[in-house]
Amino acid sequence: MRFVKMHGTGNDYVYVDLWEEVVSDPAKLAIEVSHRHFGIGSDGLILVAKPDADGFAGRMIMLNADGSESGMCGNGLRCVAKFLFDRGRTGGATEFALQTGAGPRRAFVQPGPDGKAERVTLSMGPAILDAASIPTTLQGGEECEIEVAGRKLRGTPVGMGNPHFVIFVDDVDTFPVHEIGPLVEEHPAFPKRVNAEFVQVLGPGRLRQRTWERGSGETWACGTGASAVCVASRLRGITDGQVEIDLLGGRLSLSWDGKGDVKLTGNAVEVFRGEY
């Protein structure tokens, strides 16, 4: 099986082209290839499939490192856009639509000097603030309190095609993400588990974020998580909807006008190709 290793802001996945390959058990394959000692090493597996409807350049099927499927991944989808553009499957178009498990998304490719996609802007869709749709038993879009390990945490539930809980902290570097993250992920307030974002305010329009992703643990970046942070920070009056977010793997630029789609811009990088 041929594969491509790619990353968006350090959020790395193994990509398999279903135009040319057959994957009979995606969940099993995701677990095998994601292992950083016994596999290729990644945050998960992304299958790039043919669209099943007109008007789309391709379809993303995204699986976490534990084999669970997720509807949406912003960093992964930027790389899917690059994958299709670089292989000529968009007909040279730099703007095109993609299918995801969370619905259609639009991509805007910025080619580099070599003519290949270098940066991609995604229209991430509208923020989901309805509690049942996130899903959560808390109040969507409102600052809510949960308790884990005797620690009270205040955060904002936001859906971006997958569930997020955005928690502002004083210092993300010293916050015990690996201790608290799994407990937030499995908290009963989130019936389908949740991605936990731990966020520090650096200055006007500047934030720093660490993410504990359900099914994958801490990742170097999370595009849907950054989108949720953009939304939560505006709802709480911390930013005006234009924000630069520093993550372990680099910086993402985001904007949200308070009612429309969240816009996310970042890099998309091919690391290497191989056979598994």
What does this structure look like?
There is one protein chain. The protein has four helices and 18 strands. By secondary structure, it is of the alpha+beta class. It has two domains: 2-117 and 266-275, Diaminopimelate Epimerase, Chain A, domain 1 (Roll); 131-257, Roll (Diaminopimelate Epimerase, Chain A, domain 1). 16% of the residues lie in helices and 43% in strands.
Compose a concise summary of this entry.
The protein is α+β, with helices and mostly antiparallel strands and 276 residues long. Helices cover 16% and strands 43% of the residues.
Topology overview:
Layout: E1 2-8, E2 11-17, H1 26-34, E3 44-49, E4 58-64, E5 69-70, H2 74-86, E6 95-100, E7 103-111, E8 117-126, E9 144-148, E10 151-159, E11 163-168, H3 177-185, E12 195-203, E13 206-213, E14 217-219, H4 223-235, E15 242-247, E16 250-255, E17 261-267, E18 269-275
